[in-house]
Amino acid sequence: MNRFYQPDIATTLTLSEDESRHAVKVLRLAAGDLIEVVDGHGTCYTMRITLAHPKRCSVEVVATASTPNPWGHQIELAVAPTKHIDRLEWAVEKCTEMGIDQLILLHGHNSERTVVKTERLQRVMVSAIKQSLSATLPQCEAMTPVMQLIQTPFDGQRFIAYCDAMLPRERRKALAREYKAGTDVQVLIGPEGDFSPQEVEAALQAGFIPVTLGDSRLRTETAAVMAVATIHTIDQLIVNN
Q: What is the pLDDT of residues 59-82, one digit of tens each?
């Protein structure tokens, strides 16, 4: 069944113009056809098209299902945007498909990109939740200074990943060993130039655990995907055992 996204579908019973055009013009759906619509808040609706209009496709509710995220805890990814925006979009797409609750864009001392259109990332995430059959759209926070995020309280495990040889590498531990399955978690991934020594020290003072994602030096976008994949892998190992 084809899946669409509309945050206010329960009250409007109408798809947005973009989703209407996709349903009617691209997929050639007609009145009477069944579709799925997610609201981004954890609810999936089975709906019947009542008016197949390419700009305002109307629907009626057939069934409603609550589909919360299966991992059952908070996963926050804080990542510095890459110089080339397509690399960030790729990472956001993959992390959303695997599952995150919140994306925080970081602005650090060594950041090369200081402006990101969150609307564009929202479209990437909408496509990703439809692809992964999720009904919950992650929150996307605008650019946040690293020092500000470090001082913002978080009730859960907090990790900062870095690879710069000038930073205290011997204090790092493997994320796969330090993460406790099923707990709320926040992971910080720095820019191409890595976190500054001052940012790392501030994070350690605030209780962040310094971690490594392996022996290879990873690009920012790869590190973000690796961190989220590691968290879900540990979660699944515990569930399956």
A: 999 999 999 899 999 999 999 999
